[in-house]
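Hi P.,

Sorry for the delay on this. The queue was packed all week, but I finally got your sequence through. Input first:
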Amino acid sequence: MQRYTDILHDSSGSVIATATVNVYLPGTTTAATIYSDDGTTTKDNPFLTGTDGLISFYAANGLYDLVFTKTGYTFTAGNTTNIQLFDPAENVNTTSVGNITTGEDNLMTYALKANSLSVNKHAIRITAWGTTAGNGNSKTVKLYFGSTALVSSGALAINAKDWYVTGLVVRTSATAQEAIGLYRNETPTTVGPDRTTPGETLSGAVTIKCTGEATDTDDIVQRGLIVELLNSSG
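Then the structure:
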């Protein structure tokens, strides 16, 4: 998610107030989803420039076309085609969450926004970490991209240890990805690297999550999740 801001001027440098701004997905007339804040409150699309000519909105990382209209003015589309928004820190979460008794439980989750990986070879890095309870119960940590587990620790009787899991996902098409995942703890135990080929449709949101499966509540506690975009949207 990134903010776009600019001032609309005419050729003499005067601001153009109350011009209509349409934000489209690149090369289309499909209205993009835009926000008035960092991804919580949607913003009307189209909208008007301010009295000071201000253009301001937030949108998911990607490419966008901006089209301006106002009676009496002519705008050059080439100047506002393929506008690139890119914020590498897609998500940072350090609010701890633990498993609940038996069964596989979702720990931290993040919905990767539609079209965040808009071009082939665009990639994300997922990093998660946490702790385990001081007992001999079997504990399993998994990292998912959509419905695909990038890596699983397997059932490990780790007692009061820190753990770490990471994954890399690369877009190979609009509905296919190449991925690698790795799990470690301080025992030390390493699982992977494991290669997978998720098949998520990237024009929609994709759920990224860690899960924990154990015996007692808080046998597995996730302490952090970071999702980073590794390359720009150009």
